[in-house]
Design a protein that fits this description.
The complex is a heterodimer of chains A (about 260) and B (about 250). Chain A has helices at about 5, 55-65, 105-110, 110-115, 125-130, 150-160, 180-190, 205-210, 240-260; strands at about 15-25, 30-40, 45-50, 75-80, 80-85, 90-95, 165-170, 195-200, 215-220, 225. With about 260 residues, chain A is α/β, with parallel strands linked by helices. Chain A has two domains: about 5-90 and about 165-260, 3-Layer(aba) Sandwich (Rossmann fold); about 100-165. The radius of gyration of chain A is 18 Å and the shape is globular. Chain B has a single domain, classed as MetI-like (MetI-like fold, Orthogonal Bundle), CATH 1.10.3720. Classes of the chains: A alpha/beta (about 260), B mainly alpha (about 250).
Chain lengths: ~260, ~250
């Protein structure tokens, strides 16, 4: 690992995330009833499922944006039995919308987290990260002047700036066109490698390209099923024969999940 | 072309006015001809501008105090739930009373000087500013606040870096409305009781059948009102450059 790569690594080792007996209801209907899930440390886990099944709610639960009901818990397990709560290793959050603040330029958006925590903004690091996502010349451009792909790259730089060991991604590439989406998937996989990542998506292709563990969520209350993911390093080549077999299988499983929902 | 259009419209209206004067043959103390008004303006221009200065001062002070008060109330309403429950009904009810009805009371309490007119202007300006900013503060994109929470924002930094900037466009539209109606407050105040200001001058001229002077004062008021609006609107555009007029369309994309 070179020095500059170390620079982009999170401050703490990636934790495993363990959800045990999690309950959540939304507007009177039970989304999760005693749901268990374990996300391995330092891996990309992908959550697939029909829309409205509760994928985003699960992500928000882990992010601490929803309160766990009943006796359930969300634990971050750093190594062995060392359990930390969210306050020690809070996850970074990437949403479908880039959520860039329109009144700040790209640089201002990247250092937003530090300003919100009243830390001294580290502008040179923010510039390095913008260069890393290929936007060195756009540090002072406002979001309105950037394309959708560029905006999501600024959001990626903002996520990296947080140096969190856990990253929760809620369909961050779904609003992009096909070519931009492929490029950003590659960039994000490269830059976020080694962190514990939960990626919510409705795109089986994306799940198979990026996922090291793939979960399908279905039913109400929601059930989770782990499905085998293709071997090989991510991002995987969609033209591969094994990939296509997996794709067909995953599509049929998703169809079943949709029918059962 | 863009700069000439208002001039052409004004010229057209003046021509129409002159034609009406010719056709009806109305006496000059009922409907003075444009030339009479121009002459009246020129002979009295020192007095008119002096009164205009008073009215302008009332409007400016009213805008300043009304905006500060409105912004402060919106922040209190947005951040203290009890305030919302107790103050909001009072605020809405206060708007049900016509400001014109309050003018005599304000003159009684605050006197014939500038204070009662500023108070009138504040009463008119306060509501659109407070309501606009409060609405903006309530409607922060939940995605932004979620993001800020995962970044470890405190309530104070959330307000400073997310909620207030996000509500500024709403505050700006409230301010634009307030600026447009601010002269009403000042002039009504002057009508009820005063010794200076364009409203006073108009009432005074009216009482002496000096219709030409009254019209001269009226036009001066109209021009000043448009100028204030133009200045404020321009300043707001410059202060919020990220808020392009097409922003709602962009969001739908």
């Amino acid at each position: 690992m070179t020095n500059s790569e170390k620079f982009f690594q999170p401050l703490s080792p990636p934790p495993a995330i363990r959800l045990s007996r999690v309950n959540l209801s939304y507007e009177g209907s039970v989304l999760f009833h005693d749901l268990d899930l374990e996300l391995p440390a330092g891996r990309v886990s992908v959550l697939l499922g029909p829309s409205g099944v509760g994928k985003s709610s699960l992500l928000r639960l882990i992010a601490g944006l929803e309160v766990v009901e009943g006796g359930g818990s969300v634990k971050f397990i750093v190594s062995g039995d060392q359990v930390s709560d969210r306050a020690v290793t809070p996850p970074a959050y990437m949403a479908q919308q880039d959520l860039l603040l329109p009144w700040l330029d790209a640089l201002g958006n990247v250092i937003l987290g530090q300003r919100l925590r009243s830390d001294t903004p580290d502008r040179s690091r923010a510039r390095d990260l913008l260069a890393r996502v290929g936007l060195d010349n756009y540090a002072h451009a406002r979001p309105a002047a950037l394309s959708g792909g560029m905006r999501q790259r600024v959001a990626l730089a903002r996520t990296l700036m947080e140096a969190r060991a856990t990253v929760l991604m809620d369909e961050p590439f779904s609003a992009l066109d096909a070519v931009t989406r492929l490029r950003l998937q590659e960039l994000a996989t490269k830059l976020l490698r080694g962190r514990t990542i939960l990626l919510v998506t409705h795109d089986p292709m994306e799940a198979l390209r990026l996922g090291e563990c793939i979960f399908i969520m279905s039913g109400r209350p929601a059930q989770l099923t782990e499905v085998p993911s293709p071997v090989g390093k991510t991002p995987r080549d969609p033209a591969d024969v094994e990939f296509l077999t997996h794709h067909a299988e995953l599509l049929s499983r998703l169809g079943a999940a949709e029918a059962g929902f | 072309m863009c700069y000439f259009r208002p001039l052409i419209i004004a010229a057209g209206l003046i021509l129409l006015w002159q034609i009406i004067v010719w056709l009806t043959g109305a006496p000059h103390f009922i409907l003075p001809a444009p030339a009479d008004v121009a002459i009246a303006w020129w002979t009295n221009h020192m007095a008119i501008l002096g009164h205009a200065g008073v009215t302008l001062l009332e409007i400016t002070l009213g805008l300043l105090c009304g905006t500060i008060l409105g912004v402060f109330s919106a922040l209190v309403l947005a951040y203290f739930r009890p305030a919302q429950r107790w103050l909001l009904p009072v605020l809405v009810a206060s708007q049900a009373v016509p400001v014109f009805a309050l003018a005599p009371i304000l003159v009684l309490w605050l006197g014939y000087g500038i204070a009662s007119k500023v108070a009138m202007a504040v009463l008119i300006i306060y509501f659109p500013v407070a309501a606009g900013f409060f609405d903006g503060l309530r409607r922060t994109d939940p995605g932004w606040t979620d993001l800020a929470r995962t970044m470890g924002a405190s309530p104070w930094t959330m307000l400073l870096h997310i909620r207030i900037p996000a509500a500024l466009p709403a505050l700006a539209s409230g301010l634009r409305v307030a600026t447009a109606v601010a002269p009403i407050g000042a002039v009504v105040g002057e009508w009820v009781g005063s010794s200076a200001g364009l409203g006073y001058l108009m009432l005074h001229a009216n009482g002496r059948l000096q219709a030409d002077l009254m019209f001269a004062a009226l036009f001066t008021l109209a021009i000043f009102a448009v100028l204030i609006y133009f200045v404020i609107d321009n300043a707001l555009r410059r202060a919020l450059p990220w808020q392009p007029d097409r922003s709602t369309l962009q969001k739908e994309e």
